[in-house]
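Reviewers of the previous submission asked for a worked example of the structure-prediction workflow described in the proposal, so we include one complete record here. The input consisted solely of the amino acid sequence. No template or homolog information was supplied to the procedure at any stage.
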Amino acid sequence: MNEPPLRILFIVPYPPSLIRVRAYNLIRQLTGLGHEVTVVTLYSDTAEKSDVDHLAAYCHRIIGLPLPKWRSLWNCLKALPTKKPLQAVYCWQPALARRLAELVRPTGKGTAFDVVHVEHLRGAEYGLFLKTHFQANGPTLPIVWDSVDCISYLFRQTAAASNSRFGSLAARLDLARTERHEGWLANRFDHVLITSAIDKQALLDLLPSQECRPSISIIPNGVDLDYFCPETDINREPDTLVLSGKMSYHANVTMALYLAREIMPRIWTQRPDVKLNIVGKSPPKEITALAQQPGMVVTGMVPDIRPYLRRATAAVVPLVYGAGVQFKVLEAMACATPVVTTPQAAAPLAAVPGRDVLTAEDADDFAGIILKLLSDQEMQRRVGAYGRAYVETHHNWTTITTRLAEIYREAGPKLPV
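From that input alone, the workflow returned the following structure tokens.
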């Protein structure tokens, strides 16, 4: 017997888009599976407002409210003398909380929703608000919190390894508070989602000793296999590497600088004609300055990342630090582009190193593997084909979202802890 479609209240503190991929694809797929998804989100500029408008075609209803920069700064200033992390308060918008209270208000026909989905540490405050609201007003709905990654795990790495002084300082400032808060949050919701086993264990390690083990499920990141796919009529450009990602993100900046300063010079000593394309939105000045070097191209925002992935000989992802499953790795693999990355970036995947993806420990290893790959077309074809097969099996959004809907149905009222 088929289950009836779910009515989902999906709260995300930023507009889902082709850049903020996880929520975007979960919403699209849930709608495609026949569920009724009402999205409530925030936007901070005209570009994000456009993302809100775009998403309207992929859900039952979308409500977007502005989050001015002054509001986020004021939230952070108020939190500084408290124990609450800045990440937790950054996206708090009282107008959005009031709107949520209106949406969940019972009617003569009962509640309008079956489940509430809240995304990210920045959105968790809205889940806590609704729990308090339900206790005072009833009836209770199950609330599922998608932590996405363990932010404390990311902050520890950022504090130690980031090339961004601001990013490193902010991580140090917020680390202890974030660890306490994430450990406490894990048992506040009916179910918790996270992208990888590594992040799940990092979150469990934060639990206070007296707390019971929360209900946590791994919902990995997926990739749109129809959108990111090989193109047989596009020839790969020889001796061409690509690094992709949102270039304003501190972990991507650190990675790009490591590639440009440590790995590429080792490659150029043997193959001076190798070209590197750094592709991604909002590169800071230290990244744009790399374009002054011969063989280095920094594109900034592009309308479509796929041609760069499909034409490259290989995608290079020398991740210095990070958390969760990297979209940049999945997207390249989906395009049958061989990927060379770090063991850390490959660890959250079920991929077989050396077959589905190539891994390197340090700059010398990276240069050696890339040089070998550039000179071996059969190796390029084989690793690319295995990579595509891997994502088809393990990172199909439809399969992932079907499991998510099952978790929604399984979620029940949380007992006091």
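The chain has 17 helices and 13 strands. We consider this example representative of the routine output the project will generate in years two and three.
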